[in-house]
Amino acid sequence: CLAIELFWDHAEVLEALGLSRQAISGGNERRLRAFLETWFREPLTPAAWHRGAGVDLSFFDPDVIYEDTVLPDHADEAYRGPEGVMRPAERWLDPWEWLVVDLERIEGVRDRLVSIHRARSKARQTGIEFESALAYVWTFRDGKVVHFKSFMDPAQALEAAGLSE
Questions:
Q1: Where would a tag sit more exposed on the chain, N or C end, judged by fewer CB atoms within 10 A?
Q2: From residue 9, how far is each of 13, 29, 161, 162 by CA, in Å?
Protein backbone atom coordinates (compact mmCIF):
# COMPACT_ATOMS: atom_id res chain seq x y z
CA CYS A 1 0.00 0.00 0.00
CA LEU A 2 1.42 3.37 -1.04
CA ALA A 3 0.46 6.45 0.96
CA ILE A 4 0.95 9.96 -0.34
CA GLU A 5 0.87 12.97 1.95
CA LEU A 6 0.61 16.50 0.54
CA PHE A 7 2.01 19.59 2.23
CA TRP A 8 1.26 23.27 1.71
CA ASP A 9 4.66 24.69 2.65
CA HIS A 10 8.30 23.90 3.45
CA ALA A 11 7.79 24.18 7.21
CA GLU A 12 5.17 21.40 7.21
CA VAL A 13 7.46 19.09 5.23
CA LEU A 14 10.39 19.71 7.56
CA GLU A 15 8.19 19.19 10.62
CA ALA A 16 6.85 15.90 9.23
CA LEU A 17 10.44 14.72 8.69
CA GLY A 18 11.47 15.85 12.17
CA LEU A 19 13.93 18.41 10.77
CA SER A 20 14.44 22.11 11.25
CA ARG A 21 15.34 24.68 8.61
CA GLN A 22 18.58 25.29 10.49
CA ALA A 23 19.54 21.60 10.32
CA ILE A 24 19.02 21.56 6.56
CA SER A 25 20.79 24.85 5.75
CA GLY A 26 23.72 24.02 8.07
CA GLY A 27 27.05 25.24 6.76
CA ASN A 28 25.70 27.92 4.45
CA GLU A 29 23.68 29.48 7.25
CA ARG A 30 26.72 29.48 9.55
CA ARG A 31 28.85 31.08 6.81
CA LEU A 32 26.19 33.70 6.07
CA ARG A 33 25.72 34.55 9.75
CA ALA A 34 29.51 34.89 10.26
CA PHE A 35 29.82 37.08 7.15
CA LEU A 36 26.97 39.38 8.19
CA GLU A 37 28.20 39.66 11.78
CA THR A 38 31.66 40.65 10.53
CA TRP A 39 30.35 43.16 8.00
CA PHE A 40 27.89 44.82 10.35
CA ARG A 41 29.79 44.48 13.63
CA GLU A 42 29.78 48.26 14.15
CA PRO A 43 28.16 51.27 12.47
CA LEU A 44 29.44 51.77 8.95
CA THR A 45 30.53 55.25 7.96
CA PRO A 46 31.91 56.48 4.65
CA ALA A 47 35.26 57.17 6.36
CA ALA A 48 35.45 53.64 7.80
CA TRP A 49 34.56 52.20 4.42
CA HIS A 50 37.40 54.10 2.74
CA ARG A 51 39.80 52.89 5.43
CA GLY A 52 38.92 49.34 4.40
CA ALA A 53 36.33 48.38 6.99
CA GLY A 54 34.11 45.74 5.83
CA VAL A 55 33.86 42.83 3.57
CA ASP A 56 35.62 39.50 3.16
CA LEU A 57 35.39 39.12 -0.62
CA SER A 58 36.31 35.41 -0.39
CA PHE A 59 32.70 34.86 0.72
CA PHE A 60 31.66 35.45 -2.91
CA ASP A 61 32.12 33.25 -5.96
CA PRO A 62 34.31 35.04 -8.55
CA ASP A 63 31.24 35.24 -10.83
CA VAL A 64 28.80 36.43 -8.15
CA ILE A 65 25.89 38.59 -9.30
CA TYR A 66 24.21 41.15 -7.02
CA GLU A 67 20.82 42.60 -7.99
CA ASP A 68 19.94 45.85 -6.25
CA THR A 69 16.28 46.73 -5.83
CA VAL A 70 16.73 49.04 -2.82
CA LEU A 71 18.53 52.14 -4.12
CA PRO A 72 16.28 54.14 -6.44
CA ASP A 73 19.05 55.00 -8.88
CA HIS A 74 20.24 51.35 -8.90
CA ALA A 75 16.84 49.64 -9.16
CA ASP A 76 17.02 46.46 -11.20
CA GLU A 77 20.76 46.83 -11.87
CA ALA A 78 23.01 43.78 -11.68
CA TYR A 79 26.63 43.93 -10.51
CA ARG A 80 29.12 41.20 -11.36
CA GLY A 81 32.11 39.88 -9.48
CA PRO A 82 33.22 40.68 -5.92
CA GLU A 83 34.51 44.13 -6.91
CA GLY A 84 31.23 44.86 -8.71
CA VAL A 85 29.37 44.00 -5.50
CA MET A 86 31.35 46.67 -3.66
CA ARG A 87 30.34 49.56 -5.97
CA PRO A 88 26.68 49.82 -4.91
CA ALA A 89 27.65 49.17 -1.27
CA GLU A 90 29.90 52.23 -1.32
CA ARG A 91 27.23 54.36 -3.01
CA TRP A 92 24.68 53.12 -0.47
CA LEU A 93 26.76 54.73 2.29
CA ASP A 94 27.20 58.13 0.57
CA PRO A 95 24.22 60.00 2.06
CA TRP A 96 24.64 58.68 5.60
CA GLU A 97 26.67 59.87 8.55
CA TRP A 98 26.39 56.27 9.81
CA LEU A 99 24.52 53.09 8.98
CA VAL A 100 23.76 50.11 11.23
CA VAL A 101 22.25 46.91 9.85
CA ASP A 102 21.10 44.41 12.49
CA LEU A 103 20.44 40.81 11.52
CA GLU A 104 17.03 39.71 12.80
CA ARG A 105 16.91 36.20 11.38
CA ILE A 106 17.89 33.83 8.59
CA GLU A 107 15.33 31.63 6.85
CA GLY A 108 15.73 28.99 4.18
CA VAL A 109 17.18 25.64 3.35
CA ARG A 110 20.36 24.34 1.77
CA ASP A 111 21.61 26.70 -0.94
CA ARG A 112 18.83 29.32 -0.79
CA LEU A 113 18.69 31.57 2.27
CA VAL A 114 16.99 34.84 3.19
CA SER A 115 18.52 37.24 5.69
CA ILE A 116 16.12 39.70 7.28
CA HIS A 117 17.50 42.89 8.84
CA ARG A 118 16.59 46.14 10.53
CA ALA A 119 18.55 49.05 9.01
CA ARG A 120 19.08 52.29 10.94
CA SER A 121 20.87 55.34 9.60
CA LYS A 122 21.45 59.04 10.10
CA ALA A 123 21.40 61.40 7.11
CA ARG A 124 24.59 63.41 6.81
CA GLN A 125 22.96 66.62 5.53
CA THR A 126 19.88 66.82 7.76
CA GLY A 127 20.70 64.70 10.81
CA ILE A 128 17.38 62.90 10.41
CA GLU A 129 17.48 59.28 11.57
CA PHE A 130 15.75 56.53 9.62
CA GLU A 131 14.79 52.93 10.33
CA SER A 132 13.55 50.38 7.82
CA ALA A 133 13.36 46.71 7.03
CA LEU A 134 15.84 45.16 4.63
CA ALA A 135 16.23 41.62 3.30
CA TYR A 136 18.48 39.68 0.96
CA VAL A 137 17.96 36.43 -0.90
CA TRP A 138 21.25 34.49 -1.07
CA THR A 139 22.07 31.62 -3.43
CA PHE A 140 25.06 29.43 -2.62
CA ARG A 141 27.06 26.95 -4.70
CA ASP A 142 29.90 24.97 -3.15
CA GLY A 143 29.85 27.20 -0.04
CA LYS A 144 30.19 30.49 -1.97
CA VAL A 145 27.56 33.10 -2.79
CA VAL A 146 26.83 33.03 -6.53
CA HIS A 147 23.82 35.38 -6.47
CA PHE A 148 22.10 37.72 -4.04
CA LYS A 149 19.33 40.26 -4.33
CA SER A 150 18.15 43.03 -2.01
CA PHE A 151 14.57 43.77 -0.99
CA MET A 152 13.00 46.52 1.14
CA ASP A 153 10.14 44.19 2.05
CA PRO A 154 11.12 40.93 3.80
CA ALA A 155 7.85 39.30 2.66
CA GLN A 156 8.88 39.86 -0.97
CA ALA A 157 12.30 38.31 -0.29
CA LEU A 158 10.72 35.26 1.35
CA GLU A 159 8.30 34.93 -1.56
CA ALA A 160 11.14 35.23 -4.10
CA ALA A 161 12.94 32.40 -2.29
CA GLY A 162 9.80 30.23 -2.18
CA LEU A 163 9.48 30.69 1.59
CA SER A 164 6.32 32.78 1.87
CA GLU A 165 5.16 33.36 5.43
A1: N
A2: 7, 20, 12, 9
